[in-house]
Amino acid sequence: MRKVNSSLKINPEFGIIGGMKMIDGKKLAENLRAEIAAKVAVLKETRNITPGLAVILVGENPASVSYVTAKEKACKEAGMNSIEIRLEESTTEEELIKRIHDLNKDDAVHGILVQLPLPRHISEKAVIEAIAPGKDVDGFTPVNIGRMMIGEECFIPCTPHGIIKLIEFSGMDIAGKHAVVIGRSNIVGKPIAALLARKETNATVTVCHTGTPDIGVYTRQADIVVVAAGRPNTLRADMLKPGAVVIDVGVNRIPDPSKPKGYRLVGDADTEECAQVASAITPVPGGVGPMTITMLLWNTLQAAERKQAK
Ligand code: NAP
Asked: Given phi > 0 = left and psi -120 to 50 = alpha, else beta, which region is 286?
């Protein structure tokens, strides 16, 4: 780690990690989670409603177990009810959909999340479509995605929503900027491109993917780069315009015998190198991840408030 230059003028909203200007996702998440917890307390006190989030995990994929555990912990810390449903790897698609239908009818459950990926014998599409749109706090159902695209009330998918908050937190005014998104998955690339291009956000958006011959041609023109490829070193310093804001969504496990778990996590950008050119960059871990969980809490609170309003 390089020495931190103490004379560096630091935006109080940024953390400094190894002397680099990092967008501190943990800190932003902490602030927003405190705000959410305060709203949960008001809902309990004034309406006697405790938002409830059902988290379903099928099987024991180690990464999924750790994501689910973090979500359940955050849910309890915010004062919400966490309904933890662990199912055997051998669970059938029919059984899983039946559980979802039961949760759809349960008034104590405001949000339903099915941790992906699912075992191969279960269709993710069928399972996602079984979740009632009013409880789809991940924002993955076609109804929610469609509503988001046409600007109607919806649950915005958590990772893209968190990314918007992180860019705003960096101090970058998104309106009028050129944003390049690397990746076009249904859960990250496509929704973040759509959100950035909305009239209220007003960025000009380019989407790159494996069919893009030279991604650097686009990223070198970008004020904002969101990289969600799931490949380390997809974004290098020579692909950036000086002063760009970089949001690194990737989470990649690199074998590392020096670490207690035998691996370390890296993003899709070469962080140290890109931080020399960017005006700000999210670290991995500690950038997008904590914000994804925070926006899940936010959507669960919204679900409870909307139900109460009806
Ligand atoms: P995904 O479904 O695998 O999609 C990856 C996308 O990136 C695809 O569109 C693919 O293009 C594109 N891509 C892959 N390699 C590329 C390359 N070398 N150059 C350009 N484009 C490339 O992944 P995802 O679900 O969007 O997730 C992306 C990463 O974000 C993963 O590391 C995941 O673990 C992480 N993630 C983190 C969070 C969080 O909360 N921190 C949340 C979600 C995802 P094609 O379409 O052409 O194949």
From this structure: left
Write down the CATH number for the domain with range 158-288.
3.40.50.720
| Residue of 206, 209, 284 to test ligand 1 pocket, by largest number of atoms within 8 Å of CB | 209
Residue 3 CB contacts under 8 Å (≥ 6 apart), including other chains: 19
pLDDT at position 310: 75
The answer to whether 271 and 248 have CB atoms below 8 angstroms apart is yes
Characterize 67-106 residue by residue with b for buried, 16 or more Cβ atoms within 10 angstroms of its Cβ, and e for exposed: bbeebbebbeebbbbbbebebeeebebeebbebbeebbee
CATH 3.40.50.720 residue window(s) in the chain: 158-288
The reply to whether ligand 1 has any atom less than 6 angstroms from the CB of 189 is: yes
Cα 253 to ligand 1 centre (Å):
14
Residues of the chain with pLDDT below 70 are: 1-20
Ligand 1 in contact with 250 (CB < 6 A)? Answer: yes
The ranges of the chain annotated as CATH 3.40.50.10860 are 48-138
Q: What is the best residue among 210, 215, 234, 284 to mutate for testing ligand 1's pocket, by most ligand atoms within 8 Å of CB?
A: 210
- Give the pLDDT confidence score for residue 276 in this predicted structure: 92
Which residue type sits at 1? M
The answer, yes or no, to whether any atom of ligand 1 lies below 6 A from the CB of 287, is no
- Amino acid 17: pLDDT: 53
Architecture of the domain whose range is 48-138: 3-Layer(aba) Sandwich (3.40)
* 26-50 per-position pLDDT tens digit: 999 999 999 999 999 999 999 999 9
Please indicate whether residue 257, judged by its CB atom, sits closer than 6 Å to ligand 1.
no
Which pLDDT value is given to residue 19?
53
